[in-house]
Amino acid sequence: MGMLVFNICAAFSEMELELIRKRVKAGIDSVKQQDRKGDRPKVLTTEKAETIRVPHQVGKMSVKEICNTIRISRSVFYRCINQ
């Protein structure tokens, strides 16, 4: 009796996995048809990058002040500076 229940649960699990795969594939195909990328939008635009570099090069503002003003993280700040 225990094996029967186990096999039924396994069958439902396999069916659910197949449904998930189909939904994911349909979503990816939909994005490809619309000629969109599925990536995250960029946090740092070229305008923001310039507003970061100028005060940093002049030494006018601290890193913390620049990050708070533009609302970015320190890691994004340093990534921009090192590019």
UniProtKB/TrEMBL annotation:
GO molecular function annotation: DNA binding; DNA strand exchange activity
Residues annotated as domain Resolvase/invertase-type recombinase catalytic: 1-35
Protein name: Transposase (Resolvase, DNA invertase)
Organism name: Legionella beliardensis
Gene name in the database record: hin_1
